[in-house]
User: What shape does this take?
Amino acid sequence: RELVEAKEKVRKVEQKLQRSHIGRLREGLSESIDTSNIHQETLRALKKVNTAFSMVGHPILLKSGDLLKSRLS
Assistant: This one.
C-alpha cells in the first residue's frame, strides 16, 4: 500500500519538477538552458526507477489482495 502511495508522490514530484524546468527555460535562464539535457535525463531516470519499484511490488500487492482496482478507489 505504501508503495502505491509513494509511486503517486514521485509522479507528482516529477511533474512539478518538469513544469518548473519548462518555466525556467521559457524565462531564458542560461543555467537552465545549459543543464536542460541533464535535467531531462535525471527526470527520465527517476521515472524508470519509480516504474521498476512498482513493477516489482504490483504482483505482491495483487497476490496479497492489497491492490486497489484503480487509483481512484
About this structure: The radius of gyration is 16 Å. The helical segments are 2-27, 30-34, 36-64. Residues 2-64 form one domain.
